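Hello,

Following up on my earlier ticket. Below are the two sequence lines again, exactly as submitted.
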Amino acid sequence: MDQTSTAVDNLRWDSAEPPQQLAASVAFVIKIASASVAETHRRFLPVSSSTSPAIVAAADTSLRELAPETKAQLDSILEGVREELIEDGIANTITRKLPQLVANHYRSVLPAIAALVDGSRTSSAVTAEILKEVGRLRDATSHFERRWLLEHALWSRNPAARDGAGAGLAWLQDPAAAERVRAAAERETLPQLRADLEEVFRLLAATDEHGVAPQDHEG
Amino acid sequence: MALLRKITKAKWYDTPWLPNGEVPADALVDLRTQNNELSVWRIEPDRANLNAVIAALASNKTDRLANLDYVLLDEEVVIALGIQSVKSDGDSPHRHANSHWHWDLVHLTAAKVLGLAREMKRREAEHKRVQHTAVREILRAALQGGELDRDVVKPDLLDQLEGRSST
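Thanks for your patience. The regenerated structure is below:
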């Protein structure tokens, strides 16, 4: 029953199975993502030291270990949310604490979250909530890596992860993700989830390169 | 008539271990009762009041803008389960919706709640999501139209809707 006490224990990237599997998928996704990264940055992101192709190409961030204090913070969030109701629009430990943790340690925290999602180590509602928050939080520095994580989660076997990834990408409002969302929608077997992903695709496709949707002009 | 209940869709998906026709236990959180009653909203056959109900739910005790998930269930299904409903006032910021479309399912037993959950799960096609962008537009229109009682809407949500905060 003590799921969260060990939730992040296995997130050492040099350990055996799930991380290995993840590392392979990370490498795969990054390889694909890197191909379009220059275009993405030119059209959408202000280029900075943290968003430059060099940094992104060096996104072997997935191979980093979580520092003990960062791991403790992530564990604390997962522990805190265990007793809470997860409901859209209602604040919880994830919405209160995850943004700061990601902003401060995105290179290690985002791969850890990817492993959580891949390993189905959290409840469906928590998984979706984390991914929504990853898309929602405002932090330009980690934008590309957050988009990568959400795109990665679109292909999860866990429908709650695909659900959260779609909602997260709707918040991220990066039109560069539109085609991946469309592809995920085409592949989706659950009709209700497919409809949601199609809606997110329409939203992203209508979003301009500044991340402004038609109905969002005033920001 | 259809009955609408706010849910969180992520709790309702099948998992690999879930037997066919069963409901994940976590989904029952979306059907938590008070005094053996469950709050629902009646939606007109032409769904003309749907946006008003969405505005009521999306502004009700919410700390911030978010997408809104809901399930629609035919009233006949509820009747077939032996569940009674009574008109009651809602407590959302939307006064008109509160007085016209809010109902309670009453005298609920655990078996009836489970029956309701099974029917909701069976009708997954009626699990809907309103994306946060659409929720924002609906709420802004309701605010501008004076349909929402500003005093009941949480300040942080008001700030987001009125552009004083982006998150």
